[in-house]
From TrEMBL:
<dbReference type="GO" id="GO:0016846">
    <property type="term" value="F:carbon-sulfur lyase activity"/>
</dbReference>
<dbReference type="InterPro" id="IPR006234">
    <property type="entry name" value="O-succ-hSer_sulfhydrylase"/>
</dbReference>
<dbReference type="InterPro" id="IPR000277">
    <property type="entry name" value="Cys/Met-Metab_PyrdxlP-dep_enz"/>
</dbReference>
<dbReference type="Pfam" id="PF01053">
    <property type="entry name" value="Cys_Met_Meta_PP"/>
</dbReference>
<keyword id="KW-0663">Pyridoxal phosphate</keyword>
<dbReference type="GO" id="GO:0016765">
    <property type="term" value="F:transferase activity, transferring alkyl or aryl (other than methyl) groups"/>
</dbReference>
<dbReference type="GO" id="GO:0005737">
    <property type="term" value="C:cytoplasm"/>
</dbReference>
<dbReference type="GO" id="GO:0071266">
    <property type="term" value="P:'de novo' L-methionine biosynthetic process"/>
</dbReference>
<keyword id="KW-0028">Amino-acid biosynthesis</keyword>
<protein>
    <recommendedName>
        <fullName>O-succinylhomoserine sulfhydrylase</fullName>
        <ecNumber>2.5.1.-</ecNumber>
    </recommendedName>
</protein>
<feature type="modified residue" description="N6-(pyridoxal phosphate)lysine">
    <location>
        <position position="212"/>
    </location>
</feature>
<dbReference type="GO" id="GO:0071268">
    <property type="term" value="P:homocysteine biosynthetic process"/>
</dbReference>
<dbReference type="InterPro" id="IPR015424">
    <property type="entry name" value="PyrdxlP-dep_Trfase"/>
</dbReference>
<comment type="subunit">
    <text>Homotetramer.</text>
</comment>
<comment type="similarity">
    <text>Belongs to the trans-sulfuration enzymes family. MetZ subfamily.</text>
</comment>
<keyword id="KW-0808">Transferase</keyword>
<keyword id="KW-0486">Methionine biosynthesis</keyword>
Length: 407
């Protein structure tokens, strides 16, 4: 099957609708879901050639599937990369990245504020196979450069970060990586290609959790690495067809259709998030708001330059309190008083989600580690969905307005 031929120079919104394999003989306008584990071969000889990778054609879904191919083509078009490879989850994409580019004895430099499971994967799992990881403060380019060793093979960053929305300079990290003969991977889950395309700023790989904004409605698990065709064919495909962390065709189809509305959804998420962040900053019960779209954000200028002038969909804030225990009680009160927001740690959904990072995503850290990460007990994270902004304000006021007065 071949890719549908499209004219050059199409915009992201059009690519998100149009990039796919050619329709089947039935001419379906909405891409088909090929829910099949294997494919009928025209002859034994053709099957032999396909299994030897000498002839194009599908054989078995662990090796390839047309719906998964369409999802990969579409995501690669949005990120502006030659290729993408779908995986079962976002974590499976990072696992595949490590299996592909790392060997025993290699060294990784990773931002200390990446997704918690990413840290456990690098230190816990890759550590078992002789890979060493150094963690550095996300925004401190000099710390990244100082951590380079002769055996450094990979730099891994995520921008903006969860939950404090720290932004890093992708181009500066790409320069550090390439000077060291290493590769840079950027987890682009929060910003999506609507806000930033990391490979245009020098990154070698883009990691996606399709579970988040690509699906966009909180339905399925999915992941992907966006990369060069050479990396896909020579490094990653041989691993997925053997190790099997592949994307299910059903999930690929949901994400494929989800991407069709990614552009307008991200614009709407960001507009709602900016309005809510601006409003939160004016609330007397709120100590601090973390949002790259606000002038008060330490990296506001970098974020606006790097993220197409948009602040992203995630807003965090600290409630005022007299100490850590009081802060936790107050944050819990605000969260538990909501009647619209979903209390869940997931994000990327149309539904606004609210959570307490200090006892969920960062709950397994010691209090000292949490302080170092800047995640206090009064911190609340909102992944701002498409709920009406006035309903969100009212929902947060239920708790903010009924907090006991501070001593
Ligand atoms: C959720 C998430 C992941 C992991 O994705 P899964 O699909 O849940 O495996 C990786 N990175 C970031 C930034 C995430 O938010």
């Amino acid at each position: 099957m071949t890719q549908k031929e499209l004219p050059e120079g199409l915009h992201l919104d059009t690519l998100a609708l149009r990039t796919a394999l050619e329709p089947s003989q039935y001419g379906e306008n909405s891409e088909a879901l090929f829910l099949t584990s294997s494919f009928i071969q025209t002859s034994a000889a053709s099957a032999a050639r396909r299994f030897a990778m000498e002839e194009e054609g599908y054989t078995y879904t662990r090796v390839g599937n047309p719906t998964v191919s369409s999802m990969e083509l579409r995501l690669a078009a949005l990120e502006g990369t030659e290729a993408a490879i779908g995986t079962a989850t976002g974590m499976a994409a990072i696992l595949l990245l490590g299996m592909g580019v790392l060997r025993a004895g290699d060294h990784v430099i990773c931002s200390q504020s990446v997704f918690g499971s990413t840290i456990r994967l690098f230190s816990g799992e890759f550590g078992k196979f002789g890979v060493e990881t150094t963690y550095v403060p996300q925004g401190d380019v000099e710390a990244w450069a100082a951590a380079v060793k002769p055996n450094t093979k990979l730099l891994f960053a995520e921008t903006p970060t969860n939950p404090l929305t720290d932004v890093c300079d992708i181009q500066a990290l790409a320069d550090v990586a390439h000077k060291a003969g290493a590769l840079l991977a950027v987890d682009n889950c929060f910003a999506t290609p609507v806000l930033q395309k990391p490979t245009t700023m020098g990154a070698d790989f883009v990691i996606h959790s399709g579970t988040k904004y690509l699906d966009g409605q909180g339905r399925v698990m999915a992941g992907a690495i966006c990369c060069s065709q050479k990396h896909k064919d020579e490094v990653f495909l041989p691993i997925t067809r053997t190790a099997g962390m592949v994307l299910s065709p059903f999930n690929a189809w949901v994400v494929l259709k989800g991407m069709e509305t990614l552009g307008i959804r991200m614009q709407a998420h960001c507009a709602n998030a900016l309005a809510l962040a601006t409003w939160l900053e004016a609330q007397p019960q709120v100590a601090r708001v973390y949002y790259p779209g606000l002038k008060s954000h330490p990296q506001h200028a970098l974020a606006m330059r790097q993220q197409s002038g948009l602040g992203g969909p995630v807003v965090s804030f600290d409630v005022k309190a007299s100490g850590p225990d009081d802060a936790r009680l107050r944050a819990f009160h605000v969260i538990d008083s909501t009647k619209v927001c979903s209390i869940t740690t997931n994000l990327g959904d149309t539904k606004t989600t609210i959570c307490h990072p200090g006892t969920t995503s960062h709950g397994r850290l010691t209090e000292a580690q949490r302080q170092a990460a800047g995640v206090g007990q009064g911190l609340i994270r909102l992944a701002v969905g498409l709920d009406h902004i006035e309903d969100l304000k009212t929902d947060l006021l239920r708790g903010l307005n009924s907090l006991p007065t501070l001593a």
